[in-house]
UniProtKB/TrEMBL annotation:
Keywords: Signal. Residues 54-406 form the Leucine-binding protein domain. InterPro entries: Leu-bd, Peripla_BP_I. Residues 1-20 form the signal peptide. SUPFAM superfamilies: Periplasmic binding protein-like I. Belongs to the leucine-binding protein family. It comes from the Bacteria. It comes from Streptosporangium subroseum. The keyword DNA repair does not apply. Pfam families: Peripla_BP_6. This is Amino acid/amide ABC transporter substrate-binding protein, HAAT family.
Amino acid sequence: MRVSAIGCTAVTASLLVALAACGGREAAAPSTAASGSGSGECQGQQTTGITDTSIKLGGIYPLSGPASAYGDIPKGIKAYFDYINAEKNGIGGRKVEFVVRDDGYQPPKAVEEARRLVEQEQVFALFQTLGTPSTTATWDYTNQQKVPQVFVATGASKWGSDTAHPWTIGWQPNYISEARVYAQYLKQERPDAKVAVLYQNDDFGKDLLGGFKKAIEGSKITVAAEQSYEVSDPSVDPQMRNLAGSKADVLLNITTPKFGSQALAADAKNTSWNPLHIVNNVAASITVLKPVGFPNVQGVVSSTYYKDPNDPKWKDDPEMMLYYAKMKQYAPDADPTVPYHTFGWAVASSFHKAMEAAKCPTREGLRDAMRALQNVQVDMLLPGVTLNTAADDGFPIESMQLMKFQGERWELFGDVIDTRKEFGPLTN
């Protein structure tokens, strides 16, 4: 039976019995806190949202609004958790419950939903809050509450470099690392490139653009024009017309899905301007390109770090075969060829590995585990891409591979680029 949220939030230190009923530290059976590396080490740590048989997670996504294309991600996550619950007895014998909330890509709504998940739903951890603005709005709260905010769905560099928020960590390659990959590509292929940039006017867009500018320092590559847009804008057509006037020979498209489609369509319509079009990873899904028409996006360049369900290269790959089978079984209404579903599967598998690595099945145990990932293999990631973190390194993935759109799908080219090795440690 679920205890009311009002009862839980009104608890004081003197009401220990009520605290136990609300799922506080005393709520878990001693065996839960004691399992792992020893009862002494785990004693007194937070076990809200986790028992010997269950673990409750909360996710916040824009299921509606301008970034609603990302609503496919939790479908892949839920399919993975449904699969391991039914066939693998969950994670360490704990069945996973995944509660998803919609923030419409609005930071104030994200804060509201984070509080609801922590204080009313009593989740063990926030697993995935999507978007740089939403995560920025919530991470002070989650860290004050000492609730793990695991593998947030945004590549902002601050998730890994900030030391004041140890309970929050990213997952995907950060935007500065991604920018380095594009800069390296242009240095090799177009060393005199003049680049026009379309970017979202928030921490996400500024992070990638700033990383790109820094990565081209000392080269002959220049940024010839910049245009920003707001997520509330109806269209980026005016910005694209202004960028076309620069006559730049490269367009760097730093957008979320809705605006990514618009920019690609505007580029295709303008026959007098034919730049090399680089679209950032978060807007590179087939669902972004398809409405534009595949003939209109030939030769577009991007980068990735996980396997594309549309690439025949992975047809006989055991993890991809498992993914297709379990998506059909546990998410029959979802199209498994949509890469955002694959992203969800990959990040859920990564959470599985991190939770298994926790010395204590507690919030503190998960916090520590996600900062101590060493060469962790996740089968849906590209070969050569592994999870690696340390106490002072909160960037799990810093390797990517370039890809070009050919025919009706992305084709990988070149080698996996480990930006740690190629560019050195990331600094802001």
